[in-house]
Write a structure and sequence with these properties.
Strand content: over 45%
Shape: elongated
Number of helices: 2
Radius of gyration: 24 Å
Largest sheet: 8 strands, antiparallel
């Protein structure tokens, strides 16, 4: 049985009369709302096994004309899509949650079932079902929003990984139907977000055809071996581990003398709300405000965006983190960032993160700089601990590797070619 998903060309294959064909179809790439996959913050007992490169696109492809979606429902009546993962490099023994992106979901009956399924991948082909999360087309529509979105859902109970730690993770949508009607409202539309065909060279994506057989995308067309679905496993060694709130990266900027903080959650379970904490030295934090949860009764799957303005940041460095509080009083933290007020000491540095840092320090500028800059880092006694020169032409940031520094408080001085000097203080863990 042969299928063909030609990419911007026509593709013809010779098959038996009983075989399923996919000839004469073009793919159209539809850009989703997010151009990159949102990064989540790892929990202390529940980690994402596969850091997602920020360069990955977040798109979905349609089959023309009106043939449905390459990574979801289509006129070929595909039943499922899944991604292969090998977690043997991780000490975890359980699959606890799945982090995924949906490009589009809609239909006349939003109560129709869609399942997130983990399959045994020991044999290299989707095998026995290890665990299932039951959702609906309506749930997926809520995740997708207007133009694509991400969410985290939990397996209950957690899934024991096979000895090989090879799994397939994806969606079973065999209860949906892409019918022949020309009325789009009558079709069950569902598309999983994926990378583009030129990234990465992963050969991870598989699909289940109408006859029940599983096929890797690399068998369908030459581009398929470079396709990856945005379906990621979260694994743990603690089966009682919970992740009440899954944070996206906290970010911040200075605007009209206020520190504006932004963050997103991708799952909330019994969330009471958030407290915003600030520090000037990275050691002692105080609460400067609170933000109520947007989740109904503290529970939500899918992205929720939050913002907080600190109208009275201190002069110089301000370290911020978000404290999430459960209804039972338990709490967890976001990542920590730095926002620097505009003063003579740091006139061209807008923010820097993470702070404290254990490896690299990202320094963001207030504007695009030019030329090069000398970076000098001194310890608390004033002794120069590190010195380097970097190009900043047409750049809004630079990354400084401080992994070699001993733990402590340091002063970074950035001197531009024109003599402008900016200084910041950071903590090396």
């Amino acid at each position: 049985m042969k299928k063909c998903y030609p990419f911007l060309i026509l593709c013809f294959v010779t098959v038996l009369a009983s075989a399923q064909t996919r000839s004469g179809k073009q793919l159209q790439v539809v850009q989703s709302k997010s151009s990159t996959v949102p990064e989540i913050v790892s929990n202390s007992c529940d980690t994402i096994g596969f850091p997602i490169p920020s360069s990955y696109s977040s798109i979905y492809q349609t089959v023309l004309p009106s043939g449905g979606y390459v990574t979801g429902t289509n006129e070929f009546n595909d039943k499922a899509k899944a991604n292969f993962w090998d977690v043997s490099g991780n000490a975890a023994t359980y699959l606890s949650k799945v982090y995924f992106g949906i490009g589009f979901a809609n239909g006349p009956d939003l109560s129709k079932p869609i399942s997130i399924v983990a399959y045994d991948g020991t044999s290299g082909v989707p095998g026995a079902v290890l665990g299932t999360i039951n959702t609906t087309l309506g749930d997926m529509k809520a995740v997708a929003g207007a133009s694509g979105g991400y969410a985290i859902l939990a397996f209950n109970p957690v899934v024991t990984l096979p000895a090989s730690k090879a799994i397939f993770l994806g969606f079973d949508f065999s209860g949906l139907a892409w019918n022949a009607s020309t009325n789009p409202a009558s079709k069950d539309s569902f598309a999983v977000l994926s990378t583009q065909f030129n990234e990465p060279r992963a050969n991870k994506a598989w699909e289940k055809w109408a006859d029940g057989s599983w096929k890797p995308f690399s068998d369908v067309n030459s581009y398929g071996k470079r396709l990856q679905l945005h379906v990621y496993p979260l694994v743990t060694s603690d089966q009682s581990c919970t992740l009440p709130v899954s944070f996206g990266k906290l970010s911040g900027k200075l605007a009209n003398k206020a520190a504006v903080l932004s963050w997103t959650t991708y799952a909330e379970i019994d969330n009471k709300g958030f407290e915003v904490e600030r520090s000037i030295d990275g050691l002692k934090y105080s609460t400067v405000g609170s933000v109520a949860t947007k989740a109904a009764n503290g529970n939500h799957s899918g992205g929720l965006s939050y913002e907080f303005k600190d109208l009275s940041p201190v002069q110089g460095q301000n370290l911020y983190r978000i404290k999430q509080i459960d209804k039972n009083g338990a709490f967890s933290y976001s990542n920590t960032i730095s926002v620097v007020t505009q003063n003579q000491a740091s006139q061209h540095i807008q923010s820097y993160y993470p702070n404290p840092t254990s490896g690299s320090l990202v320094v963001e500028f207030t504007k695009s700089l030019s030329g090069s800059a000398n970076i000098q880092i001194a310890d608390a006694s004033g002794k120069i601990a590190l010195q380097t020169k970097t190009s900043v032409t047409n750049s809004r940031n630079t990354v400084v590797n401080v992994a070699s520094l001993k733990p402590g408080i340091y002063l970074l001085k950035l001197t531009e070619d024109n003599g402008t000097v900016s200084t910041i203080k950071f903590v090396k863990q």
